[in-house]
Prior knowledge:
This protein is an alpha+beta fold. It folds into two domains: 1-74, Winged helix-like DNA-binding domain superfamily/Winged helix DNA-binding domain (Arc Repressor Mutant, subunit A, Orthogonal Bundle); 75-132, 2-Layer Sandwich (Dna Ligase, domain 1). It is 43% helix and 14% strand. A three-stranded mixed beta sheet has the order 4-3-5, with no helix packed on it. A two-stranded antiparallel ribbon has the order 1-2. It is flat.
Amino acid sequence: xxxxxxxxxxxxxxxxxxxxNHPTADEVYEAVHAAHPSIGRATVYRTLGRLSDEGAIGxxxxxxxxxxxxxxxxxxxxxxxTICGRVDDVMIPVxxxxxxxxxxxxxxxxxxxxxxxxxxxxxxxxxxxxxx
Length: 132
């Protein structure tokens, strides 16, 4: 079931798509607030949470960092730069059968899984190469 399609919701979804770089809730708020000062932080946070719960957007839970939001809601993986914190999509097939294997091994009823790769992004590698 999807929530009401309010003007604020549409603005927040549009801004998330425009940012397209896995922004944090704070980054979405800053962008929304710059163009629409009447939309408050709580509205942005609440709307992002609802959109994520509804499956309209993805929530990327970052190890040791703030959650990020993804305008692409289909199942895929992410990579995080350990230097600058940038988050990008990793377009490889989602591991088939891994939820079932984890359920058999743990006795849990698995509802989802996430996989985060960590590494150094091309820009940070290039920056390091030019300063070496």
